[in-house]
Design goal:
The complex is a heterodimer of chains A (about 260) and B (about 190). Chain A is an alpha+beta fold. Chain A has 8 helices and 7 strands. Chain A has 3 domains: about 55 residues, no CATH class; about 50 residues, no CATH class; about 140 residues, Phosphorylase Kinase, domain 1. A 7-stranded antiparallel sheet of chain A has the order 1-2-3-4-7-6-5, with helices on both faces. In chain A, a hairpin with a 2-residue loop joins strand 3 and strand 4. The N and C termini of chain A lie far apart (about 85 Å). Chain B has about 190 residues and is an all-alpha fold. Chain B folds into 2 domains: about 100 residues, RNA polymerase sigma factor, region 2, helix turn helix motif (Rna Polymerase Sigma Factor, Chain: A, Orthogonal Bundle); about 90 residues, Winged helix-like DNA-binding domain superfamily/Winged helix DNA-binding domain (Arc Repressor Mutant, subunit A, Orthogonal Bundle), CATH 1.10.10.10. In chain B, helix 4 crosses helix 9, helix 7 packs antiparallel against helix 10 and helix 8 crosses helix 10. The longest helix of chain B has 26 residues. Chain B starts with 17 loop residues before the first helix and ends with a helix. The chains are: A alpha+beta (about 260), B mainly alpha (about 190). The interface between A and B is large, with 46 and 48 residues.
Chain lengths: ~260, ~190
């Protein structure tokens, strides 16, 4: 056999050889050939370098937080439950039964799970504070940039299974900056971003675990003000480095606006 | 990259709850996003495809038999990306990486064109774009997601032999294109 044809024979197997996907005989054959053939050995090295180049240029990525929030919201929405789509009666019955069980389980888990994981000990405020600090990193503050609540509010539609109130407070000195999806304390939350002079105010909101109205509670942690209340079935967390007085004013405005139609 | 042990996930009872889905499938969100990102290379389209994939995954979770969850999810992502690409082409809302245009670009690259080249990763990207979608897909499933040939074969619905030959061809083409670019650049 001419030398070129021999190389060709092996060249097609180098890729599988690199991946360890050749059968044992074939792999031994390739290895033996590489040991004695400079041309194929060079081709093998080149191919290894190419594979390495691809690893360098296509590193594994991390899903953005906003996407994580979207996905979690989507799979927790009842719409996402398995549909029955089978023709066989027995199977169909089983699917329905499974679906019914899941409806009950998920319905229950949504309530119970939320209650268990939700604001219990000291953690939620810390989680909200962390979300605030993270949002201040370059490029993390907003997914949608707009001072118009008619742009920000619809932006959340389809991304969350609830619709946050987006009050307009710029006449009170708190212009809206935008909004983003965030993922805090194991749940997707809507984050509204307001501003007071150079201070960023994050409003993190999600459906609360109980319909009860909880009066605002303000605390200071690591130099940040954190306010928390529940109203109208929604929980609110407001985090900022703004002074306590002005943040209290902001919270009152938020609550009034939320109550207003 | 580390490949995950297959059969790592135990067989699960038929009545799986949302919690089990979140424990078994959700941890592979990063892998899903990575695949969609490199397949579609359009941030919005990639994120939409990932969300759609998870919706499909949760609906079809009853059919999941406890095999490699990551490979199972990536098969769905790959499918959603293929659908997105088809839709995108039909609607003409997005310029699909045009084989002819890109190979022409590579083949007839003039010195003027090379002046606008910024760095090696651009060259890499162009080389990747010039692959056929089939070859590119197999390459990404292997190099980025580290799936075995068998898993890739399942994901794309083709025999293992096809996976092997596509991958071999794609790698050689990448090698030739990158070599050409670096030779031209020097």
């Amino acid at each position: 056999m001419p030398a070129d044809a021999t190389h060709l024979l092996y060249a097609d197997r180098l890729s599988g050889f690199i991946d360890g996907e050749l059968d044992a005989d074939s792999a031994l054959d390739v290895a033996a050939h590489l040991a004695k053939c400079d041309a194929c050995s060079t081709a093998y090295t080149l191919l290894l370098n190419t594979v390495e180049l691809m690893h360098q240029n296509m590193p594994p990525l991390r899903a953005p937080n906003a996407l994580r929030a979207r996905v979690v919201a989507a799979i927790r929405t009842p719409r996402a439950l398995p549909r029955e789509h089978t023709v066989r009666a027995r199977r169909s019955y089983r699917t329905w039964a499974a679906a019914a069980v899941m409806v009950v389980l998920i319905g229950g888990a949504y309530g119970i799970g939320a209650r268990v994981s939700a604001p219990s000990a000291a953690s939620p405020a810390d989680a909200m504070l962390t979300a605030h600090v993270r949002s201040l990193q370059q490029g993390h503050l907003t997914d949608v940039v707009s001072t118009d609540q008619h742009t920000v509010k619809p932006w959340f539609t389809g991304k969350l299974d609830f619709s946050p109130a987006v009050p307009r407070l710029e006449s009170e000195g708190f212009p809206l900056v935008g909004g983003r999806l965030d993922y805090v304390a194991n749940r997707p939350v809507a984050a509204l971003v307001y501003q007071r002079r150079a201070h960023v105010i994050n409003v993190l909101t999600y459906p609360s675990d109980s319909p009860a109205t909880v009066a605002p509670h303000l605390e200071t942690r690591r130099g940040y003000q954190i306010a928390n209340w529940s109203a109208g079935g929604m929980a609110y967390w407001v985090v900022s480095d703004l002074n306590a007085d002005e943040l209290r004013t902001f919270c009152s405005l938020m609550r009034e606006a939320d109550v207003a139609p | 990259m580390q490949s995950e042990p297959v059969h790592q996930t135990p067989r699960l009872v038929p009545e799986r709850t949302r919690d089990s889905f979140e424990e078994v499938v959700l941890p592979h969100l990063d892998a899903a996003y990575t695949l969609a990102h490199y397949l579609l290379r359009d941030e919005q389209a990639a994120q939409d495809a990932v969300q759609e994939s998870f919706l499909r995954a949760v609906r079809h979770y009853a059919g999941y038999r406890g095999e490699n969850a990551r490979a199972w999810l990536l098969t769905i992502v790959r499918h959603c990306c293929a659908t997105a690409r088809t839709r995108r082409r039909r609607e003409g809302s997005f310029v699909e990486f045009d084989e002819r245009q890109h190979s022409e670009h590579v083949e007839s690259a003039t010195p003027e064109l090379h002046l606008v080249r910024s760095d090696a990763s651009d060259a890499f990207q162009r080389a990747l774009d010039s692959l056929s979608p089939h070859d590119r897909e197999v390459l990404i499933l292997r190099e980025v997601e580290d799936l075995s040939y068998e898993e890739i074969a399942l994901a794309i619905g083709a025999p293992i032999g096809t996976v092997m030959s596509r991958l071999s061809r794609a790698r050689k083409r990448m090698q030739a294109l990158v070599l050409r670019e670096s030779r031209d650049a020097s």
